[in-house]
Amino acid sequence: MAPREQKGGGGDPEADIEAPLISSGSSFLFQDAACEEDGEGDEEAEQRRNRRRLLNGSLRQSNVTSQVALVGTDVCRIESLDYELIENDVFKQDWRARDRAHILRYFALKWALCFLVGALTAAAAFVANLGVENVAGAKFVVTSNLMLARRFESAFTVFLVSNFVLTMFATVLTVYVSPAAAGSGIPEVKAYLNGVDAPNIFSLKTLVVKVVGCIAAVSASLHVGKAGPLVHTGACIASILGQGGSHKYHMTCKWLRYFKNDRDRRDLVTCGSGAGIAGAFRAPVAGVLFALETVSSRWRSALLWRAFFTTAMVAVVLRALIDICKTGRCGLFGKGGLIMFDVTSGYINYHVVDLPPVITLGVLGGVLGSLYNFFLDRVLRFYNLINEKGQTYKLLLAATVTICTSCCLFGLPWLATCKPCPTGGEEACPSIGRSGNFKKFQCAMNEYNDLASLFFNTNDDTIRNLYSAGTDHEFHLSSIILFFMASYFLGIFSYGLALPSGLFVPLILTGAAYGRLVGMLIGSQSTLDHGLFAVLGSAALLGGSMRMTVSVCVVILELTNNLLMLPLVMLVLIISKTVADAFNANVYDLLVNLKGFPFLEGHAEPYMRQLSVSDVVTGPLQTFNGLEKVGRIVDVLKTTGHNGFPVVDEPPFSDIPLLYGLVLRAHLLVLLRKKDFISSCTASALDASKHFSPDDFAKRGSGKHDRIEDIELTADEMEMFVDLHPFTNTSPYTVVETMSLAKALILFREVGLRHLLVLPKSSKRAPVVGILTRHDFMPEHVLGLHPYLIKSRWKKVRFGKSAFTNFF
Amino acid sequence: MAPREQKGGGGDPEADIEAPLISSGSSFLFQDAACEEDGEGDEEAEQRRNRRRLLNGSLRQSNVTSQVALVGTDVCRIESLDYELIENDVFKQDWRARDRAHILRYFALKWALCFLVGALTAAAAFVANLGVENVAGAKFVVTSNLMLARRFESAFTVFLVSNFVLTMFATVLTVYVSPAAAGSGIPEVKAYLNGVDAPNIFSLKTLVVKVVGCIAAVSASLHVGKAGPLVHTGACIASILGQGGSHKYHMTCKWLRYFKNDRDRRDLVTCGSGAGIAGAFRAPVAGVLFALETVSSRWRSALLWRAFFTTAMVAVVLRALIDICKTGRCGLFGKGGLIMFDVTSGYINYHVVDLPPVITLGVLGGVLGSLYNFFLDRVLRFYNLINEKGQTYKLLLAATVTICTSCCLFGLPWLATCKPCPTGGEEACPSIGRSGNFKKFQCAMNEYNDLASLFFNTNDDTIRNLYSAGTDHEFHLSSIILFFMASYFLGIFSYGLALPSGLFVPLILTGAAYGRLVGMLIGSQSTLDHGLFAVLGSAALLGGSMRMTVSVCVVILELTNNLLMLPLVMLVLIISKTVADAFNANVYDLLVNLKGFPFLEGHAEPYMRQLSVSDVVTGPLQTFNGLEKVGRIVDVLKTTGHNGFPVVDEPPFSDIPLLYGLVLRAHLLVLLRKKDFISSCTASALDASKHFSPDDFAKRGSGKHDRIEDIELTADEMEMFVDLHPFTNTSPYTVVETMSLAKALILFREVGLRHLLVLPKSSKRAPVVGILTRHDFMPEHVLGLHPYLIKSRWKKVRFGKSAFTNFF
């Protein structure tokens, strides 16, 4: 029985993350914030090649898939998170040393953090709304006044230039300051909660760019929403608070050491993402459900309660802030933005005769929603090809889209015929100022342009117009058709730009137009109001694209403040989701896939039942002795990218080789930096762990690493030894090599592991034969090793993956 | 290396379940439906002793804790469920044989079952409401008419006798037909979803008794609710449908074989319990959240979508049924029962000045709620001492409580002074018939008795009265105080009777009175309506007793149909839950504990980090050879109660002993019954699994077992061999014996295991050293083995367990 003998198929390099991308030079290892270094010759070219491969799918076949992903608009190296409790001696001593006061402080901090996350997210949501209402409001006031004076060319110029400047501002900020802030951020948050970390997704820079960029992008009348960016904002706030401020800007708090691990950070980020939706829609219950249904991969019932507390704080703080604004101190922020769309109140009655149009609405909504996903996917792939050419191209793309959008918004209303103002309405007609249903636009006095009241408005106001009850005759059929078509495609073409942009509001808006359209076309038999049709249309399109059921349902209810619609909304959602699931996956899964995140699904693929874990572990395994030579550790760390190494006690320290546990790269680096070495290879009498405080081993913020290259060691030190025992996790999770891959995946995902040790079946072999990481469970990796499975019907049986994902 | 050598601390009997209770006779094993056999000399005495021990806590110290529990009112043997996929050859062949049509049928069935669960639960909820409204309605009409005629004695007699008869009917039904139907059933459902099965909790008999008994109990004016029993009803319906009907009554469906396992059944039962709440309150979203927050121990996002579908079906079917009733074909069922309490509609405004009374309401609600739990716990312990004396005592107890209740309800209104009818009200005053706010009772014409409108009504109508807005002056302070006190204690004393009874409605009712009381006492500065205070009071008491946040919040919103109250309701809930958590655990945890279910908590106790799994595995381990003699299998099955046995390949079949997998008792019994033996101890050339269909191994319904005693084998057969390989699960989950107990618990619970194999650290020993089961993780067991931990501060640090459960 040779000590480090590795028979059979075992032995896996924990090569999931920082292993070299394509080049094998070790100098390429551990470069943080890889995606920021745009503009350095070789690397940029390398990145570009990776990105192209990623997008063309060729990277998916090679073994590096799970090491890079599109974060925002740039390809970055990503890293696995570790939700396992590292039970080594240092941890246990720390645990034993925690007395009642420590524990109470931990709890108090936990709740204080939740409160802060809620309050700050509410503040961010408020700032975003205030900004949009004021910037966009000022723009509309100026253009409307010019229109009233019939100076149409000047109005168009002002509209176009202000939109252009705002869009460019958002894009430049995103491209040059924080590319990770592009897009909605929900796919990144979802990947983070699944266990994939990327540099800078939760940095202070990203937070600022996200909020400011979002205000600029939405004010620029682009067809993008605030909800997605606010989810990312909430998650950012949570993560930054959890690590006690930003390390980079030396704003940290020493108190928070108990939160410096991936488990506590995950909980906070989950609460933060819920707070984002709660802030975006003033819908606290929907926020909790959104976090639960859409972004999180694991859920504990204790978390429900904390997420609820967080979103309740959002609601309370938002209400207080809005109360302050009621005195008129918030500029143009008045009845827009955050004010709920409680416009369809009053008793709603519905009958069997209403069912056919509602069911049709659901079915078509499902089709339109899945088409939306399909088009979005195509457009994003195309945009990525442009974006990867360089920063200038990103700016050009954004410029093109904003100019087209402005032309659409200003040009299309001219197609509408003017309608005479209704008599006896409460509202001023034509409306003066920025809000109101009756935009005058080019019409004569006492007439209004119905299309302008849709196009020439902030998205929130347009939704309110469409949702409003008793307005069945305010809109022409042709206007609604035109608006629906324009809104559908503007939404698709606006999402992929290099600026913060959400999908929620465009979908709600397009859905509202779609609902009114259906109501106009086939709702004549029905007793339902067209405003109600608009609400149901939003539900149908959200259900068809995002496939969230419970949270969308509650969002709609909280937005419209009418619970009597519940059965209808549920019906529409169920129909549209079911129809859409037959075609493709939900939009967030598509985005996560497109971005190349190694997402661990909750269920195992059928072919995984055919394989045992020994079929997928590959490569030579690096293990350390309980007492290891410093030189060897340095050597191994420099030549491999692995993050965990089994520690094996070998003769003469034990009779036979015995698995002692697993030691992490991060912990080894701490040991090497402290240089607490022993001179001879004998069991040390001293407890080495006493020289370390648990703070030394605390996990730093997202994407921050020590690097082996930064540690200088003399030749003498390289010959010394280090006792790894006190720093080794003695309770790693293990599977036997004959375990089926499907069941190992369940263990890996449910417990939230980064490393899963593979033990030999026969006791004659080395005590550990490999390590499974996230990478080893990726379908690309598994099917790459066993290509025959691609052809077997175990793969093909997965027709309509999305449908099956949900059915299982 | 001797084959079955068991060194060290390993080796655990999987003694969790069917092992003898106290007697060690093997004849005592595997008696199904043990709790039904009331009235047989020895066993009854044994049961009584067990129960006493269970209740006095002495059983908790001994090793049999996790084998018996109070189900309904009787002590029953319980059993672990197994959510692991048993990957043996039979399963794999079955899996391989499933083609597209099979998979589609499986999906179609899954959704069809959800639809049926929803529709049938809605029907059950409707029947329950219809029954209560008609039975209780008839009773109130008769008594009210007698009161109008001033024949007070006759009215009292009718009231008392009808209540008595109804209560006795419910109790006799429960005691003699299905004792498992007693109580709310939520603790049983919660335990089931945590992995503890009990005989008869989901039988057809229980279902019928639950619905009928619930109608009788609620109609008897007992202070019990319909919601809890409906949750149990929904779970029953789901379980019965999932096993394809009732085996006992030969109503089964062959189609459902894919659902005959604990995983699919768990999903269905989860949906069913959500449907129960959805049906009870016509609150579909709250139903989903209740299932998620309160009853389920594990949750997958796919389940959210199915639960949502189920509760949506409940809402749709209920609406259709109520529409049918609108034509007046449902007797007295009119505006009562299921009709939502949408009485506080209209715009609600609140200001800073409202905060002090609302916060006080929350704090006091928390205190009252935890006191409620405390009293309930004491009263239940006392009741259990009475109940265990025999069936007659159960009847006597119920009789006593119903007589006292009737006297209270009829007697207390006499203390109130008559109030003159308000002028200009829309409602008739005094109200004639059964509903309405203005009961005349003993008063003169044009006067009403405010206390009678609370006491002398169905619970649902009383809640509506208390919630109604604009009624600030309808009630005397003294009436509300009296009603609150009576309601609080009647609720506590009514729950433990041997009949179906829920806790929800009494808490809502008491809370409503409490809220009005607070509003009257300190709400004078506030602008809030007393009806709104009543709603908030319900939230406060529910939050204080049940500690559910999100689901209670949504229940309240869906009941009152007013989303504008959301921030206030959230605030009250958060305060009351936080306050109450400082005192004791939530009411369901208390009940689960009191009933003695071996509930696996989601978090590990601190002292578990100090122990490794080898510290808790006990007793000799029984393993089988890959080719085992029939006689030995029979012998082991007869002498032990274990449910899983490791299969080890030993020389000469392999070089050294190798762990092959785990075989289940249930599967061994199938093998023995089929008698597919081989004559010699050589590897069989034939694939034995071909003689079996997967149906043979399907798990039967709750609490149904084969028994080893029923299998007759000849002496020749006993000398033959059986090849266990095709029937052995080759992918059991394993841990190394040095694994910390806390981390093993996380694996055990997250993956939903019944057996967890313990592997040796050193390869010199036997390939498996023990099995961990649910029993081994129970604090009683662990602390029994290591009593010094009780005194260590690892135990003590758990002050206020409930608080910590939630904080972690």
Automatic annotation (TrEMBL), chains A, B:
GO molecular function terms attached to this record: voltage-gated chloride channel activity
Name of protein: Chloride channel protein
Taxonomy, superkingdom: Eukaryota
GO cellular component assignments: chloride channel complex
Membrane-traversing stretches: 108-132, 152-177, 268-291, 303-321, 333-352, 358-375, 395-416, 475-496, 503-522, 534-557, 564-583
Alphabetized Gene3D superfamilies for the sequence: CBS-domain, Clc chloride channel
Keywords: CBS domain, Chloride, Chloride channel, Ion channel, Ion transport, Membrane, Repeat, Transmembrane, Transmembrane helix, Transport, Voltage-gated channel
Membrane topology term: Multi-pass membrane protein
Domain CBS span(s) in chain numbering: 728-788
CDD domains: CBS_pair_voltage-gated_CLC_euk_bac, ClC_6_like
Family: Belongs to the chloride channel (TC 2.A.49) family.
Compartment(s): Membrane
PROSITE patterns given in the database record: CBS
